[in-house]
Amino acid sequence: MIKKYLLIGLLLNLSVICSILAQNVRPDKIESLKMRPPDMPNEFLLNQERLAKPGVSSNEQVYQFWRRGSKEKDMVLIEEAKQKFDNPVGASSFQKWYRGNKTGEKDKIEIDIIICISDSEMENTITYFTKEAFAAQFHNTEIPFAGEKSWMPKYVHPRQDTYSVMFLKFNVFVRMYVRLKDKSVDELHQMTENLAKIIENKIVL
Prior knowledge:
Elements: H1 2-22, H2 30-33, E1 45-54, E2 60-68, E3 75-84, E4 91-99, E5 107-115, H3 119-132, E6 138-140, E7 149-153, E8 162-169, E9 172-179, H4 185-204
Antiparallel strand pairs: 1-2, 1-4, 2-3, 4-5, 5-9, 6-7, 7-8, 8-9
């Protein structure tokens, strides 16, 4: 009987450990997390991408900068570099999508996805994006927009043609900025919510 309870306890502990491990997204998954044309609303084209992904070792990172010259041309690799660090590093994808000409007040979507490999890196990432990176300060929402935690600007954009939100799912931090011309606030919010669901599904798979 004692052995039976010990076995049950061991199985329960293993299930908890497996559950915790499943919530840690590895840096080498960044390619599968980033957004691709089928994920995006109609006629949005990827204009720029800054990708930082793991190299051959856990402390090596490969940085790539891709850019599109025009909507008729493919993305071109502008810069590529490798760097080694003292400790293991995470990964990130920063993308800019445009609908129509990229100049002027055109429809635009920015998506940043960052895989953090430690609690300290996660806290530094959250602090930077919510308090330092932008003029607007972001606050933690009472009900998450997506993921386990989310942040939104303290003040609404006066024109209400942009929507910005950040959220944390497991060890992945996501920033989304959507600007839509000639669309209602409801349409703007709905598109942002749809994109967040796509990213969240990619994270949990």
